[in-house]
């Protein structure tokens, strides 16, 4: 499928990159990316993927826009308060780039629907804000064999890494089990710097575009941590755990399950 004159102009700054070119831009257009969570991380992820020309973007989120969201969830506007997040986000994506197909899921991701939803996309990005969802997404990506970009933020700190199922370390290689309830404060208790979501989400979008194009060095087997107050990036080496309950040599997890726990979306790496 050839590009129209308007599309050639729209994506010209990509096409002139030797690492992208016309062939790379076609790969981007043919790609499907599922963004789980249309909030702080999901906002910049979805907007930059739409701007890049991703052919199909999936958005899954069961929540409605709340006034407290607007400090960081830049895809939503004041007039969207009370509206379903996926509908608000889909509207902004189509306004930005009408070429993008947007599929919305106004529901919670769970063990019953995850694999079916994942099957329609080539890549998955985790923009959720709770541990049970992150474990479920990790496990579902492994069973579905879908590359996964993890991200998390809390207060002034953020982190992300890329998971290639069966090849690189997964989320459970680092955190085999849910942390005890109460150990990690909730987002409401601890707060988060709004602009931090933009930084980590943009990095997540960059990672998935690199995977689609097959260029650069993916953020596998290493976590990129960022501390905003010190303007400090830190790379933490990780490796695939042979005893991982999911991807290890003798896995104990053979089907999707979801635990119930209300905690925030950030894992402290200092004690990992």
CATH topology: Rossmann fold
CATH architecture: 3-Layer(aba) Sandwich
Counted up, domains total: 1
The biggest beta sheet is recorded as: 8 strands, mixed
As laid out across the biggest beta sheet, the strand order is: 3-2-1-4-5-6-7-8
Contiguous uncertain segments of 5+ residues: 262-272
Helix content: 25-40%
Radius of gyration: 18 Å
Approximate shape? globular
CATH homologous superfamily grouping: NAD(P)-binding Rossmann-like Domain
**Mean pLDDT across residues:** 92
Span from first to last CA? 48 Å
Going by helix content, strand content and strand pairing, the class is alpha/beta
- SSE topology string: HHHEHEHEHEHEEHHHEE
Task: Walk me through what this model shows.
- 33% of the residues lie in helices and 17% in strands.
- The protein has 10 helices and 8 strands.
- The chain has helices at 5-10, 12-15, 21-30, 42-52, 85-96, 114-118, 131-144, 171-174, 187-190, 194-213, and strands at residues 32-36, 56-60, 101-105, 123-126, 148-154, 157-163, 222-227, 232-237.
- An 8-stranded mixed sheet has the order 3-2-1-4-5-6-7-8, sandwiched between helices.
- A hairpin with a 2-residue loop joins β5 (148-154) and β6 (157-163).
- α4 (42-52) runs parallel beside α5 and α4 (42-52) crosses α10 (194-213).
- It starts with a helix and ends in a 35-residue tail after the last strand.
């Amino acid at each position: 499928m050839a590009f129209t004159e308007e599309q050639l102009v729209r994506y010209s700054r990509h096409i002139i990159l030797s690492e992208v070119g016309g062939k790379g831009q076609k790969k981007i257009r043919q790609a499907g990316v599922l963004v789980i969570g249309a909030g702080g991380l999901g906002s910049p992820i979805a907007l930059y993927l739409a701007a890049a020309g991703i052919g199909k973007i999936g958005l899954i989120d069961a929540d409605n826009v709340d006034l407290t969201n607007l400090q960081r969830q830049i895809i939503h506007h004041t007039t969207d308060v009370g509206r379903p997040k996926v509908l608000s986000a889909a509207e902004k994506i189509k306004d930005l780039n009408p070429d993008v197909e947007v599929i919305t899921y106004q529901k919670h991701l769970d063990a019953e629907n995850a694999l079916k939803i994942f099957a329609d996309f080539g890549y998955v990005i985790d923009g959720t804000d709770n541990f049970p969802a992150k474990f479920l997404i990790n496990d579902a990506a492994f069973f579905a064999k879908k590359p996964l970009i993890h991200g998390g933020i809390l207060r002034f700190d953020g982190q992300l890494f890329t998971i290639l199922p069966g090849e690189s370390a997964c989320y459970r290689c680092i955190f085999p089990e849910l942390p005890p309830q109460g150990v990690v404060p909730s987002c409401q208790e601890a707060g988060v710097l709004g602009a931090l979501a933009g930084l980590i989400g943009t990095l997540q979008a960059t990672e998935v575009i690199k995977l689609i194009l097959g260029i650069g060095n993916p953020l596998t087997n290493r976590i990129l941590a960022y501390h905003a107050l010190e303007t400090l990036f830190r790379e933490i080496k990780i490796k695939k755990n042979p005893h991982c309950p999911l991807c290890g040599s003798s896995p104990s997890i053979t089907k999707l399950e979801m635990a119930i726990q209300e905690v925030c979306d950030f894992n402290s790496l200092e004690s990992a």
